[in-house]
Amino acid sequence: MSKSINKVQSTAVPVKLENIDTDQIIPARFLKATSREGFGNNLFRDWRYNADGTPKADFILNDPTYNGKILVAGKNFGCGSSREHAAWAIKDGGYDVVVSSFFADIFKNNALNNFLLPVTVSEDFLQNLFNAIEKDPKTTVSVDLEKQTITGGGQTEKFEINDYKKTCLLNGYDDIDFLLSIRGEIEKFEQQPVDM
Q1: Mean pLDDT, to the nearest integer, of 89-116?
Q2: What are the DSSP E strand ranges found in the chain?
Q3: Could you tell me if 110 and 82 are in contact, meaning their C-beta atoms sit under 8 angstroms apart?
Q4: What does the buried/exposed string (b/e) look like for 80-104 if buried means 16 or more CB atoms within 10 Å of the residue's CB?
């Protein structure tokens, strides 16, 4: 699994639905594994497949017209339970970025901790992006984490991200990797005399 993220330029898969909860992203019956691999096969399982396992022709992830490393979704993405597996499933499904006008806080933190970049955009930008992708599925979306910009559908918008999480994503650090990267500074601090 690729860890560091800086610039992602790709076509996108539009899931034009609001209030997509974590049970829709990865149903609870698939949460038995403890490793992060294999969850992508069951991403949006109940929307994507019939009971007999055959793909539903009308679900967007089964339409070969749409592909890419960027998932574009409606408002309030990742609501519901706090399961980290939702971020695992999206990342394992081949996505590096999820774009929405609002993310549930726990999902957003889980995504950032699993090297999946949630990009929050305005409602107008999101609607314009949906329209552009619908008109031309080969529409390219560009995300620049360092500059904190997203470009698509002829528009560019800035997005916010926590500075610490930005540093971690740019360098491919989890929390322990980050601490190891500043080990020298920590040791220097520990050697300072303590005033009593």
Answers
A1: 96
A2: 7-10, 12-15, 70-73, 97-100, 117-120, 141-144, 149-152, 155-158
A3: yes
A4: beebbbbbbbbbbbebbbbbbbbbb
Q: Does the pLDDT of residue 1 top 50, yes or no?
A: no
Q: Which of 98, 60, 104, 54 is nearest to 79 (CA)?
A: 104
Residue 177's SS3 state is helix
The overall longest dimension of the chain from CA atoms, in Å, is 71
The H-or-E segment that residue 185 falls in is helix 183-190
User: Is 129:99 a contact under the CB 8 Å cutoff?
Assistant: yes
- The token pair that represents 41 in the structure block: 């096969």
Q: pLDDT for 95-104, tens place per residue? A: 999 999 999 9
Amino acid at the residue 35? S
The DSSP letter of residue 72 is E
For 4-43, what is each residue's pLDDT tens digit?
A: 899 999 999 999 999 999 999 998 888 776 667 778 899 9
Cβ pair 70, 97 in contact under 8 A: yes
Three-state DSSP class for residue 26: coil
Q: What does DSSP assign to residue 56?
A: P
Convert the pLDDT of each residue in 73-87 to its tens digit: 999 999 988 889 999
Cα gap 105→118, rounded to integer Å: 11
State yes or no: pLDDT of 52 exceeds 80: yes
How far is Cα 97 from Cα 116, in angstroms, rounded to an integer?
6
The gap from C-alpha 23 to its chain's centroid, in whole angstroms, comes to 16
